[in-house]
Write a structure and sequence with these properties.
By secondary structure, the protein is of the alpha+beta class. The chain contains six helices and eight strands, in the order H-E-E-H-H-E-E-H-E-E-H-E-E-H. Keywords: Metal-binding, Repeat, Zinc, Zinc-finger.
Length: about 180
């Protein structure tokens, strides 16, 4: 074994590094070096691209940053690979020929493909409701209609209609009561 070669860990563009505080002119407001040390224990994944000082507390954040900002994926960086990466900043392409959409993250492609397949994996769990959704966030928004208390109440005299989302209240006020938003 040749001990002069860097270890795989040292070669990795995603290697964990000790946190280095940003330059004094770019110090985040919440950074306090005299605090309990919580800030120093985070942001351990540093981008090693020349001239880039971004750092992240999760390796996934670093990977997404390097893919989006520098056109890089996982692996080494030969000149041929760098050329391929720079021409593929959206490497996840929809396999449906008529579509042609591409994405920077695999999860976005997976969610998008449900438009083609009709898959709706997120089902409402309330009794008597058979709605299903392609995204968890849409299910969570829907489930609010089953809440007994509506947090956003119309204050128009003799109305009192309740809503689970502020935007729906504002739409109601404009359409029903002709209240102009400020």
């Amino acid at each position: 074994m040749n001990n002069n070669l860097p270890s795989l860990h040292e070669q990795s563009p995603y290697r964990t590094q000790q946190y280095r505080p940003p330059p004094a002119n770019n110090v985040p407001e919440h950074y306090n070096p005299t605090s309990s040390g919580m800030y120093e224990s985070r942001k351990l994944f540093t981008c090693n691209e020349p001239g880039c000082s971004e750092y992240f507390d999760q390796p996934g954040g670093l990977r997404i940053h390097q893919r989006n900002a520098h056109g890089r994926g996982v692996g080494g960086s030969s000149a041929e690979q760098d050329h391929m990466r720079s021409s593929q900043t959206r490497p996840y392409v929809c396999p449906y020929a008529e579509c042609g959409k591409s994405f920077t993250q695999y999860g976005n492609l997976k969610t998008h493909s449900r438009k083609h397949t009709g898959e709706r994996p997120y089902h409402c769990t309330y009794d008597g409701c058979d709605k299903a959704f392609t995204q968890l966030g849409n299910l969570k928004t829907h489930e609010k209609i089953h809440w007994p208390v509506k947090p956003f109440m119309c204050a128009f005299p003799n109305c009192g209609k309740g809503f689970t989302q502020r935007g729906n209240l504002k739409t109601h006020q404009v359409k029903v009561h002709q209240i102009v938003p400020q």
